[in-house]
């Protein structure tokens, strides 16, 4: 019995091949389910007691030899494959997995590009805000009913500290530190205590815009937005619908004309052909005053939009949650810059 094992060991050590199929056959004949190793292990029972130890040792040596041999031959095979590919001058280059920007970053950068081209600067503020900058200075004093429009996350230990509900807080900070002329946009992350659904998320992104100078009029606002929508959507038809925001007077919501050509157009525009893309208005004199700017000398406009909403329109994405799941199969589709 033990001699049979030794014979196998010699054969295994002597075996060599560069042929994938021969190697596989070798593997099956030794290490396969019905292979030699298993049948020898099964024969172990019949070996006389005094030979069991020597037999067992020899069998283990054989098993290790088989495993090592298979590993060695297979790795030679792989190396040979890689070498062959590398030495082939006609091969296509290895596809390098490059990363790409998140669609929200792509859209944000595009918006920034459009506004910086007409002289807007970029400003930022903290995500953890105080009541003054997020609400009170924006003409939303304590107990103002419009505070309910934005479900707020408060920091439990201090009701004065909260997660900003909009980037309008940055316009307050900017005006406190700068005198007109002011032309700035503020992109950033905002937080609201909303139930997550296909259309709402509790963390999302906005871009706020602010223009303050002498004699700024509603016509300037409209023209700026016209330029913006034309640059971003290639579509110049917009309309301003009267609306209400505490920090602007008058206030409006901006719709772009989307069209009514397909079934999807009907669905997403609710049959009107128009889509709301942002809020805007003339900065309320109270806000200017709160921020140390003389409303008798200066006037201005402001606007605010959600980046997710714009990205969903541009890319025809129907579920906002996709932006936050970070599934590479989704993210990889946005390689092209807008
Ligand atoms: N802050 C508003 C919101 O989060 C958006 C907004 C509307 C900003 C009108 C503005 C504005 O500056 O003028 O819903």
Describe this structure in words.
With 338 residues, the protein is α+β, with helices and mostly antiparallel strands. It has two domains: 2-85; 103-331, Bira Bifunctional Protein, Domain 2 (BirA Bifunctional Protein, domain 2), CATH 3.30.930.10. It is built from 13 helices and ten strands. It has helices at residues 2-14, 20-31, 36-43, 52-86, 103-116, 131-134, 168-177, 218-233, 263-268, 285-290, 307-315, 322-325, 328-331, and strands at residues 121-122, 128-130, 154-155, 158-163, 182-191, 203-213, 238-245, 248-257, 274-283, 299-306. The chain has a seven-stranded mixed sheet, sandwiched between helices. A three-stranded antiparallel sheet has the order 2-4-3. Strand 7 and strand 8 form a beta hairpin. The longest helix has 35 residues, at 52-86. The model has no long low-confidence stretch (mean pLDDT 91). The chain binds 3,4-dihydroxyphenylalanine. 3,4-dihydroxyphenylalanine binds at residues 166, 168, 208, 245, 248, 279-281, 302-304. 3,4-dihydroxyphenylalanine (DAH) binds at residues 166, 168, 208, 245, 248, 279-281, 302-304.
CATH fold-level assignment of the largest domain:
BirA Bifunctional Protein, domain 2
Give the count of structural domains.
2
Low-confidence stretches: none
What's the architecture of the largest domain, going by CATH? 2-Layer Sandwich
CA-atom Rg in angstroms: 35 Å
Profile the largest sheet: 7 strands, mixed
Computed structural class: alpha+beta
The CATH class of the largest domain is Alpha Beta
Total count of helical runs of at least 4 residues: 13
- Superfamily at the CATH H level of the largest domain? Bira Bifunctional Protein, Domain 2
Shape: elongated
| Strand tally | 10
